[in-house]
Amino acid sequence: MHEYKDVLNHDVSLCQPVAVGFQIKAQFGASHLNFSSSEFLATLFNVQFVSRYTSTMNSTITATDAVSYLLKGFGRLFYIVNPKSTSPGTLQEVPDYIAEAVPFFVMTIVMEFLTLLFSNKGESLKKKRTWYANRFSINDAVGSIGAGMLQQLSQFFIYNLTLASYLYVYNNFRLVDLDPKNIYVWITGFLIVDLGYYTFHRGAHEINLFWATHVVHHSSEYYNQTTALRQSIFQSYCSWIFDLPAALFLPPSLFATHKQFNTLFQYWIHTEMIGNLGPLEYVINTPSAHRVHHGRNPYCIDKNYAGTLIIWDILFGTFDLERVPPAVKAGSSDVEPVAYGLTHPINTFDPFTIQFHHLRHVLTTCWATSGFSNKLKVLFYGPGWHEGTPRTGLLEEIPLIAKDVPPEKHDPTVPKAVNIYVVSHFALLIVINSILLDMKHVLEFKYASIASAFVFWTLTSFGWIFDHKKFAVEREFLRTMIVSVVLSWAKLNNLTSDVANYLIAFHVASGLWLLATQRNYTHIKGKKD
Ligand SMILES: [Zn+2]
Ligand SMILES: [Zn+2]
User: Where does the Alkylglycerol monooxygenase C-terminal domain lie (predicted)?
Assistant: First the structure.
């Protein structure tokens, strides 16, 4: 039987929930190549990179290739895969399905945005406090995609505890040797990984310390494709333990495969575009079922934990249908649209707060609580628990949602031009982020750190602009100038190609424009915060 050893160099760390440990990965595997500073900058900005991608694009692609690429890519988002071609014999053969799905994330985000834009003459995008308007907002989308970027970058620094613990149990305690190529083993893998996700997800909502990480995913007040990408950096520290039962018999290669498909399946369900799916509502996790999961109406709390199959919720008593037609008769007083987000909204787009606000709250509450057993209860009972309530708190303490008008969303007004400014810089950041992830096996630790810090700094700057933080514009101007200076230095030292010239011009021009014209935007009329 194959012993799985060289595992931590293998990339399944994108599996969500990605399991990682508290150890900082101080260095990459010895076998990794290290980039020098000049090679790093050169790769980041030079023609080699561009030519590498254009050469792929220039190779002959037939219509059949394109159709099969699209079918395969979209199929994976729905777990429509061929078991035969997704049964790798070894862990090293498992593809990075999540990285391969990124173009499909982009396509569906654009498709959903355009549908919202053109449906009811753009009513769905209008910032009105009615149930079916205001379904997409730039500030929220940048916050959500930004959280996903940080979660992906975190794999540079954190130890893949999920895989390490899985392999430890599999190598030392497995009960049987199963053939990963066997179809029945593949199906068993699908079921056990999905059940593992259900148990983890339920734990993530019912154990306060775990909720402190998973809360990130629930912190958006919107429900669209970008919400799916709003992920916690540290969630995998909590999830690894729930995957260990599978390690007693399921080959690691199949675990790594199903873990990724289980994650991918949970992407498409984040949308308000798809209604009730009839009988399917009782078999698979659907947009409607997961809308309930994201709701903060009392009836939505602690419901529908499923990953792929909703049958786990039906079996374990955590299932509920969305209270809108056709599940509830139109006009009935039981109709109750879902209000998304947290019962105590965070009201910010700052990435650090998005990631850590509840962890800070849990730790300070634990510190302030008297008695050792009560301290433990703060950590391991539900987020709604306090002295005198049952383990998961009291549903009566969850604020009711008015049915006629949804709660107001945190959405401080920002001029259109500022939105365009942020979106254009954000698009550039997405490109930089994907290049960094592309280089993850060869990038030296110090460069990964500097680049990740830059991404985090940039996202923070955007969050502050959206939050109307004091001096947000000045701080963003400073960022553009520092980027320009670093790029100019690199250019003078022949470390970059001509791409750098365009980037310098872009940063200088847009930074100066922002400072010159937008310093007072936080005081514009109609500001809601
Ligand atoms: Zn959840
Ligand atoms: Zn979700």
Answer: 418-492
Distance (angstroms) between ligand 1 centre and the Cα of 278 equals 23
Q: What separation in Å is there between the alpha carbon of 407 and the centre of ligand 2?
A: 20
Ligand 1 centre distance from Cα of residue 201 (Å): 6
- Ligand 2 geometric centre to CA of 357 (Å): 19
Query: Model confidence over 128-184: pLDDT tens digits?
Result: 888 888 999 999 999 999 999 999 999 888 888 999 999 999 999 999 999 999 999
Contacts of 216 (CB under 8 A, 6+ apart): 147, 230, 231, 232, 233, 235, 354, 355
Which tens digit of pLDDT belongs to each residue from 227-238?
A: 999 999 999 989
Tell me the C-alpha distance between 304 and 284, whole Å. 11
How would residue 274 be classed by pLDDT, with cut points 50, 70 and 90? very high
pTM exceeds 0.90: no
Contact 512, 476 (CB under 8 A): no
Predicted confidence (pLDDT) per residue in 503-525, tens digit: 999 999 999 999 999 887 765 54
CA 146 – CA 350 distance, rounded (Å)? 10
H or E element at residue 361: helix 351-368
Q: Which ligand neighbours the alpha carbon of 265 most closely?
A: 2
CA-based torsion, 138, 144, 150, 155: positive or negative = negative
